[in-house]
Amino acid sequence: MEETNFNPRTDLIEVKESVEKVKAEVKKIIVGQDTIIEMMNTAVLADGHVLIEGVPGIAKTLLAKIIARTISADFSRIQFTPDLMPSDILGTSVFNMKTTEFEFNRGPIFSNIILIDEINRAPAKTQSALFEAMEERQVTADGVTYKLDEPFTVFATQNPIEHEGTYKLPEAQLDRFIFKVEMDYPQAEEEIKILMDLHNRKNINDLNLIQPVFTKDKLKQMREKVRTAHLDEKVAAYITQIVNNTRNNSDLYLGGSPRASISIMIAAKAIAAINGRDFVTPDDVKMVVYPTLRHRILLTPEKEMEGKTPDDIIKTILERVEVPR
Q: What is the pTM of this model?
């Protein structure tokens, strides 16, 4: 796809510079994980929720807390456990003796940036409490609907489902996350730097080192700018073909929904804005396809037995679909 001469818009340069500032803040404590950090920033600008998967001890929660710190907004952390109830998340109605009426005491979901730690430790009944909040940005309790304040972003961490004491998240809930990012062990040289950095900080990860980059209003403005990025019809067709290939694929039991296509488009716009562009390219689409689709597709039992992963299937699909010129 040919690109014309491009002069970056001033407001998009601001988006790019703001994201660079966020990365610099994160790097004060986190070593490596550049791709994950890029995708987290992309999701924030795309107004999407992020699921972070990885084994214990690789700084999933720490990374989410640091990204949250770069946004000057209310923060809430919820630790998911097998005995957690929906009311522990949403809130409960309590009888007020003075007014002789029930009053709704809001739960921790009523915040701007929500960190849900070990989301797959809680059973389906508790997971269902998140459905309405994550999709419609509202909570209904005792027949009354309460709107959630903007911004409303959920960062959730989970251990791989092969670990003991974990539950598989419902497909409908997974579909509400714009991205699923996978954190892995650091490289040897990165781990040395982690040890030396922590040693120099006297074994303390001081989150007070992190300075806010976005206010609520500024983040809202940035998200509005992201939405204005131009999408050529050829690029829209490219996104559609990729997702359609997940629906008509003998290797997959479940393909991507229209929400998957929309998520790819919005995320690709955010990537374009981060790079100071107001138009989406096929390369932007390729960058976000893996984290957008890997949690939305289900492999057939045969392919799982062969040791295939969702990323393997996505790679094959990208090789099959013609890139627009």
A: 0.86
